[in-house]
Design brief:
Low-confidence stretches: 214-230, 232-245
Number of strands: 5
Mean pLDDT: 76
Helix content: 25-40%
CATH superfamily of the largest domain: Ribonuclease H-like superfamily/Ribonuclease H
CATH topology of the largest domain: Nucleotidyltransferase, domain 5
Radius of gyration: 26 Å
């Protein structure tokens, strides 16, 4: 059997290709002049911090992005502030090293248009024990230990809104909804049968959302514990149960 001939590509738009390669080396760092660089008074006794959490997070982000040490990070930020002309100062590496231990990192996310359509699922992560094939073929000499990671993802933006790690004996993690902001409007929550429990239903109903798969809307009666596959897909896509296939 002859080997497959790999395809060959010929570049014809050299000018556009050259501009694209040049843009890969372009660097733009933008500082918001309205950013709170110095820490605001806390009202507590004692000396207040010199810099805000946003300042420390900015410096540490540049450190990780460019793979620099703390001393090089302070020098890099000082040079950027000098080029921009902002009268902000940067402390030594001791401040960054001390503040990064207790820094509450704020990760912004893109909000969805309209109510949040939340997708919830879990995945098992094996910590100890043989692999699946080896345990089935030769038997496992020791008990396998698992951990479960529960994720809540926005259906529109595909960003993670909630995450929880539990032991393997936890079938569902209703505490995922506790990580969603109270002012966040939740439209629907889609999950599999593992989350079809009374506790999950109560939390979903308290948030005013409607469970899509194996669930019930607020004020309605809960469905049977087990649904066949046709009825489940009919409920998911709002189809008549007789025509689902």
């Amino acid at each position: 059997m002859s080997r497959a001939i790999p395809p060959t590509y010929k570049t014809k738009n050299w000018q556009a290709c050259d501009e694209a390669l040049k843009r890969r080396g372009s660097l733009t760092v933008w500082f918001n002049p309205e950013m709170t660089w110095e820490a605001a008074p806390t009202g507590n006794r004692g000396r207040r911090p010199d810099y805000s959490d946003a300042t420390i997070q900015t410096c540490l982000t540049l450190k990780v992005l460019f793979g620099m040490a703390l001393r090089q990070t302070t020098g890099f930020v000082e040079s950027l502030l000098g080029l921009i002309g902002l009268p902000w100062s940067v402390r030594d590496l001791g401040t960054l090293s001390r503040r990064q231990r207790t820094l509450d990192v704020t990760i912004p996310y893109r909000g969805s248009h309209g109510p949040l359509q939340l997708l919830i699922d879990s995945k098992g992560i094996k910590m100890e024990g043989e692999g699946e094939w080896n345990a089935r073929k030769h038997g496992s000499p020791q008990r396998r230990i698992w951990r479960k990671i529960h994720l809540g993802i926005d259906e529109e933006t595909l960003e993670i809104h909630a995450v929880e790690v539990t032991s393997s004996n936890v079938g569902a993690a209703p505490m995922l909804l506790e990580q969603i902001a109270p002012d966040q409007d939740i439209g629907t929550i889609t999950a599999d049968g593992a989350y079809d429990t009374r506790k999950c239903h109560d939390i979903i109903a308290d948030r005013g959302a409607a469970a899509v798969q194996g669930g019930f809307a607020r004020g309605a009666q809960p469905p049977p514990r087990r649904l066949d596959e046709k009825a489940l897909w009919a409920r998911r896509f709002s189809l008549p149960a007789a025509s689902a296939s």
